[in-house]
User: What shape does this take?
Amino acid sequence: MCEIFGEPDKRYRNGDGSVLSSYSGRSAADFQALCARLRAAGYRCTAEHTANASRFSTWQRQGALVQANWLANAGCLRTVTSPEAAASLPGSSSTAAGSQPTEIFQLCLPISEANKPSNGMGYVIRLSDGSFLVWDGGYPEQAGQLLRLLIRLHGGEDGIHIRAWAITHGHGDHAGCIEEFSQRYAGRVTVEHLLVALVDPQDVSTVALHRSVPLWAARLGARACCVHTGMRFVFSNLTLDILFAPEDLYIDGRQADFNNSGFVGRLSDDRDSILFLGDVMREVTDWLSAVWGSALQSHQCQVSHHGVDDSTAAFYHSLHARTLWYPCGHRLYSWTVPFAHNIERNGRVREELAESGRYEILLHDEYIFKKTWGSSAPAEAVSPD
Assistant: This one.
């Protein structure tokens, strides 16, 4: 159905069986023609938007899914197709708003033998209806802290509802928490969706995320949803845009750095926004700038790869953010602990960002930091106990 221009120039099969097809030298008119054909074939458009002249739309017909994107910067039409993935997408049940204050929490990471480098990444977002989003979660040892925070914010253990738990990639300082949490606490919370990106297992054979995700979903009673660039979901009062999925690089060949197997997302409404970069490297941040341009600007940003990636200060300045969340502690941030070749990586960028005076900089090894959505007030330090 989607290969209306003949054979694609390139094709890539993801770990969930979906297929990315890429057609170069195509125009916005070709994108419109594709959408017209999908509509005529009985597909329903469930989300669409335009950014930096690029076009994105999601189509469903029963269980079948087509994600159609036209990337203006490259003159490239891309489609992701799956005969069954639509059934796992978040639906209208996730869109009820409420009156609770929306807040972002960065889990703290006490120094231990498991995390001498003081890295790790875990965030909790309380939505206006009182439900939650979880972003990664960090190491296994943070599973108990996560549950305690959810109970505290909810005002008790009964009825804790996680709309979606996003796992950017399979490294243990990001996905270790959900492995531990799903074994110890699965029956104490409701989890609707796991959001993941699954590239071809042959390309990431050392980290078997494609085998772990079904186990996590089964334990938690959740649906595993594989995300793709251009997808848009609404969770209560916030919109989640998937700004990058790794297939858009892996279609050109296996990536040297596993961190590029992660996805990038942004939460936003008309008051605030936060960009979650996970651990992606400069190949991805360059790609993001080229595709999204000024549409990438966000009020808050999670600094990629714990602040030791090779993305430029110019990239972060271009976001016009006011708050930089560093998923690392003072030891790694200040380069006082051996961390292989990362000791020198991006040190000058870290210094430039700090010395610019533009940003509120938040680390995570002493306190849980909380920011109220839409407020210009400084973050509040919260005890993890």
